[in-house]
Write a structure and sequence with these properties.
heterodimer, A: alpha/beta, 2 domains, four-stranded antiparallel beta sheet, 35% helix, B: 244 residues, 14 helices, 80% helix, binds adenosine-5'-triphosphate, binds magnesium ion
Chain lengths: 307, 244
């Protein structure tokens, strides 16, 4: 369990993290969302004991990170922002170094290192010095380092940044597989990742926690939640659609001419829209109910407008 | 394995990962030779000992040891790996010790590679090999003192060049603190205990006896506690200043 209580961080005058409190239980995958400079990385640096908070406390499985740093860090795996690794070392030497630091030796060390090499598909580059790796491979080395000791708590700052689509998928599968009975905290700017991976979202802006809920709940804040989009090759009677009960507004997509009906809060549109189509006998090629658009919610919440 | 050993191994082999190690060793050997044979008047002295060789070490180390230590922490800060290192559940004192020992061992290696000099003096005459051994050990201690102070400076900044210059300045203070020029500056107004302390900190004075092969326990203790003090200071600095 992670207990974060009233965590703050000042950089001279600048307040980077402001009074953050939350707890995380094993099995949860937390996604930190927020605009650039929101304080996500700074929060992670404090969770992992790299930065000392200006105020507040962090407990990792009962160990206070300020007072029992070593014990707390033993259960932690951390991928810092940008995945810093010792550039002059080869991938293999670097992973062996990490393995030794984590207390493995002999056969177990070899096995642990081999396992993460396979897990992150590093076999091709083990002899290469880290400086010469592509960005994605560098990131994978950072991930390999973080998961080697199968930590109870995994903190990953933008783990999929710079990965190709295959590797993104792979890393998400890896995180899902690791998440069982563990705690995973990731930060990301990829909103789809949050729906794909996280059980809970912490939205941070200007160092403050704005929203703490499930991705599903977050989607419900979207004005497109339960919106119905129609695509037809024939022109549809827009006035009739607009007049349906529960329709707040209608948007026409200029790109393909599809229509999106936005519901009043709480209204369910699909049945009435469907009934109208039946009644008029319209030829509709596509009809879709939206669950919501995270990017729109993100924009609205982080620009300070009320939800 | 203890964490300091793991750090030591990584840092030590790190020296050889770049040409730095070889450039350093070459520079060290060439300068040692130059100082000894030309400036030290090794042949003219017609004495079979290595005093001319050791006499220049405080000056030689003044430039070479900061160069050896400058990357220890600055590099970690600059590349951001300090964040990795500091979150790996390693005690800070083990990091500091491991890095320092790596540099000190490397300096020991460089010093050891001057062994042809020992053969030369034995070939030319009949030297006191005990005194030579003492000189070597004393010189290695001296190198440790420079390295400890330099690694402290390196822990302060992410700028390697700054770390080098800062370390050079700091070490210079300890080289000249026994010099008449420095002491004169204090004579008229500072209390006697201060004068004594300043002159007792002097590397030159402390090393003079050692280079002649005379080893005094107090000098050895001075260098050892000097090293320890700077290592402790490094631990404190790393505790206070983690980011950047
Ligand atoms: N060492 C530092 N000194 C001064 N200010 C800092 C320092 N580190 C971070 N900041 C500031 O703190 C704020 C939060 O930065 P942080 O890196 O936590 O943002 P972030 O949410 O991770 O952003 P991004 O999405 O761009 O990674 C920023 O305004 C940043 O400029
Ligand atoms: Mg960040």
């Amino acid at each position: 369990m992670i207990e974060v209580s009233k965590l703050s961080k000042h950089f001279s005058e600048h307040l980077a993290v402001n009074n953050l409190s939350f707890t995380v239980q094993p099995g949860e995958v937390i996604g930190f969302l927020g605009p650039n400079g929101a304080g996500k990385s700074t929060t992670m640096k404090m969770l992992t004991g790299f930065l000392a908070p200006s105020a507040g406390s962090v407990k990792i499985h009962g160990f206070d990170i300020a007072k029992q740093r070593i014990r707390a860090q033993r259960v932690l795996g951390y991928l810092p922002e940008g995945a810093p690794c010792y550039g002059e070392m080869t991938v293999l030497d670097f992973l062996l170094f990490i393995g030794k630091v984590r207390g493995y030796r002999g056969k177990e060390l070899q096995e642990r290192v081999k396992r993460v090499i396979d897990l992150l598909e590093l076999g091709r580059v083990i002899g290469q010095s880290i400086d010469t790796l592509s960005k994605g491979f560098n990131r994978r080395v950072g991930l390999a380092q973080a998961v080697m000791h199968e930590p109870k708590v995994l903190i990953l700052d933008e783990p999929t940044d710079g990965l190709d689509p295959n590797q993104k998928h792979q890393v998400r599968q890896l995180i899902k597989a690791l998440a069982k009975d563990r705690i995973v905290i990731i930060s990301t700017h990829i909103l789809e990742e949050v729906s794909a991976l996280c059980t809970r979202v912490l939205l941070i802006a200007h160092g403050e926690l704005i929203v703490d809920e499930t991705p599903h709940q977050l989607l419900q804040r979207s004005k497109y939640h339960q919106a119905v989009t129609l695509y037809s090759e024939n022109a549809l009677d827009q006035a009739a659609l607009k007049a349906l009960p529960g329709v707040q507004s209608l948007e026409e997509n200029s790109r393909d001419g599809s229509l999106t009906l936005i519901p009043e809060p709480g209204a369910v549109l699909f049945p009435v829209v469907n009934a109208l189509i039946q009644q008029r006998g319209w030829q509709v090629q596509e009809i879709a109910v939206e669950s919501g658009r995270l990017d729109e919610v993100f924009r609205r919440l982080t620009r300070g407008e009320s939800a | 394995m203890k964490h300091w050993r793991i750090i030591l191994e990584r840092e030590f082999s790190g020296y050889f990962a770049t040409p730095l190690a070889y450039v350093f060793l070459l520079t060290f050997l060439v300068l040692s030779g130059l100082f000894t044979f030309y400036l030290g008047g090794f042949y003219e002295s017609e004495q079979a000992n290595l005093q001319p060789f050791f006499t220049f070490h405080p000056w030689l180390y003044l430039f070479l040891m900061p160069a050896l230590a400058m990357r220890l922490w600055s590099e970690e800060r600059k590349s951001g790996t300090i964040e990795l290192l500091m979150t790996l559940a390693i005690r800070r004192r083990e990091m500091v010790l491991g890095k320092f020992l790596a540099a000190w061992l490397f300096a020991g290696l460089a010093l050891g590679l001057t062994f042809p000099l020992v053969f030369t003096v034995n070939f030319l005459g009949d030297p006191d090999n005990g005194a030579i051994l003492t000189g070597y050990l004393g010189s290695w201690l001296l190198a440790g003192a420079y390295l400890a102070a330099s690694s402290f400076v390196s822990a302060l900044s992410k700028n390697t060049v700054l770390a080098f210059i800062g370390a050079l300045g700091l070490c210079f203070i300890f080289v000249v603190s026994g010099h008449a020029l420095v002491l004169d500056a204090f004579t008229n107004w500072a209390p006697q205990w201060w004068l004594d302390m300043v002159s007792s900190m002097s590397f030159l004075t402390r090393f003079q006896a050692i280079s002649r092969g005379v080893i005094d326990v107090r000098d050895v203790l001075f260098f050892l506690s000097f090293i320890l003090a700077w290592l402790v200071a490094s631990v404190i600095v790393l505790e206070l200043k983690k980011a950047d």
